[in-house]
Amino acid sequence: MADRAVTGAMDEALSQAGTRKPAHVSHSHDLPTHHGSASSWAAITVIVIGFVVGGAAMLAGPTWWLFWVGAGIVVVGGIMALSSHILDDWY
What is the model's pLDDT at position 84? Predict the structure, then answer.
């Protein structure tokens, strides 16, 4: 809210001085984001399930075949995350 007040005051001062902000100014928050979308939540949920399965496998023995199943689930979740582009805007 404070940013809007400062920006509004600056715009008013610039318009009174006869200058304007350039129209091509862009901010990083104007870009589309993918976090919070259903596909990103699904990918993260699959990754967490994979870690839980792998962790349970380590507690239960270790049971190596179940550990590798959990690792495979994590890989599937990672592929889902990459295909939904949730990592494209983390600069």
Answer: 86
